[in-house]
Amino acid sequence: MASSTEYGSHTWGLLLRVDHQYEEVEKEFPLQVTGDLHVGGLMLKLVEQIKIAQDWSDYAFWWEQKKCWLLKTHWTLDKCGVQADAKLIFTTQHKMLRLRLPNMKTVRLKVSFSSMVFRAVSDICKMLNIRRSEELSLLKQSEGTLKKKKKKDKNSKEPATEDILNLCNSPVSSGLPANSGLYSKTMTPIYDPVSGSPASSTITWFSDGSSTEQNCSILALSHPTCSPETLAEMYQPRTLADKAKLNAGWLDSSRSLMEQGVLEEDQLLLRFKYYTFFDLNPKYDAVRINQIYEQARWAILLEEIDCTEEEMLIFAALQAYHVSKLSLSSETQDSTCESEVDEVEAALSNLEVTLEGGNKSNILEDITDIPKLADNLKLVRPKKLALKAMKTYWFVFRDTSISYFKNKESAQGEPVEKLNLKGCEVVPDVNVAAKKFGIKLLIPVADGMNEVYLRCDNEDQYARWMAACVLASKGRTMADSSYQPEVQKILSFLQMKNWTMCSQTATASEPENVDMKPECFVSPRYTKKFKSKQLTARILEAHQNVSQMSLVDAKLRFIQAWQSLPEFGLSYYIVRFKGSKKDDVLGVSYNRLIRIDMATGDPITTWRFSNMKQWNVNWEIRQVAIEFDQNVSIAFTCLSADCKIIHEYIGGYIFLSTRSKDHNETLDEDLFHKLTGGQE
């Protein structure tokens, strides 16, 4: 029988396991505790029992059954719900993790397994010198995307250790607090705008050691050659359902790595999740620009995004140019200081002109005068069971609407039809070689999408009308300051496409020292379509349009061309809409949701975030419900991923839309979790 003192005691036994490296020391420790003992006191009691002199500051309790950390050290065991059957592990919060970067390089570094993923990604980006960490996240590669690789090579293993860049000695990686001023432009390493390599005066920002410069180069420079065999082994989505598999593995940003089943030494993908690249600056973003370029390059090579033959050759030419530039000597690096002075002088000059009011082109003479376009364009309205009839009309573009008339003389009367482009889908249909400049408009109506096709006569007309349509779809007019830059961007892209106009005699002048392997620069589909010599000749022809760019400019041009593709920025998920009997694909973009027919790939309906009133999740039935203006509401369940992923995508894009250059470059983390967490 127990004594009266033992019987009246409130203590109870708790078995604790310690995750340490000392083989001669026990790993399990039984302790007598009370329910009013706080977690910090339990730590102190355990450390006294272990009797090992070491720094225990990075250790915390992990509750194995409930898959959660006990990080609130002032909470009592009763408040935490800890009882005698609890399995608590005293383990480090920072553990080694392998990350596959967009450039397919693997880095090994120490990451917080107890912080929310949003915070962990922020710390990772500080280690890698990538600004705007909110645009990235961590992705678990789904089993479906690994099947092809396993079939090709059953004995394939993880990358060899020599291919892994070890960054475990970084201050942040070691569990030390990161410098709060890392994002300050005065603290950020400056990169040569031509070569992309870190300036010698700031290279010690990364860490001490002789390998620092090499590490920076690996992250900031591309080595784009890969064998066709390697490309063939990688997962290539063939259908929208296949593309949906690519986005199924995003981790929950509001939970820690450990809570989501990630273990020490696991491998995850670090990817740009949100396609809104804010404030890209070649002077401070060499690593960031390179990783965006690499993510775009692999998306095109693996056909994760569709592009035309003409566009594929442009992308191939920019990659081939990259190889030729990388093979040059480093003579251009000496121009860093001179180029910086030139940029400062140019900035001061622009500021002086602006203050004096000398730049008249940026000032509207009459603020009430809304710009308009008026031109003869050809109109096509596809009809079922009938040929597409093309007819010329007089078109007038004003505000966010297009009106068309029978001819210019009748423009003072009632139009044949007026099209409101706000919220529409704008799809380019261009073939420069064939002199085809088309704009496809998918305008939302009550029962779906109304398709209208406009045909322009030349590049200039197309650029002006296309830019106006793009802005109108976002609810902006041509009076917006972004109109002229949008026109120039479109013209620049068309100029790159115009490779057939180049002289055939100069095709081999620039990249003569490059061992051209065209199969490395295009997707396997085009490798099968053309012979190697044909591809080489066509890539070299396209190369002439990009041969005068700097290395960073070539990457930025590649990114801009990627952003110009119709499918850019769309993340696909298979969903079942409420009331529907068949599955559909939901495309999530930075400003809209698109319902897409899974069989045909045609968009059915578009909903803009700007018209969204509220959205929520019914966690019991895993259903996302969204309300829009004009009493429009939708609800759907996600079949290809957890509904939390789509919920976080929507909230994340809305959060990113609140960013401003005027604000300090610190993030409102609480606002992000409020918009994406899904819990009140």
From TrEMBL:
Molecular function via GO: integrin binding
Record's keyword annotation contains Disulfide bond: no
Official protein name in the record: FERM1 protein
Cell division recorded as keyword: no
Record GO biological process: cell-matrix adhesion; integrin-mediated signaling pathway
Xref: PROSITE patterns: FERM_1 (PS00660), PH_DOMAIN (PS50003)
Annotated localization: Cell junction; Cell projection
Pfam families tied to this protein: FERM_M (PF00373), Kindlin_2_N (PF18124)
Stated family: Belongs to the kindlin family.
Domain annotation PH: ranges: 378-474
Ranges in coiled-coil conformation: none
Domain of life of the organism encoding this protein: Eukaryota
Keywords noted in UniProt: Cell adhesion, Cell junction, Cell projection
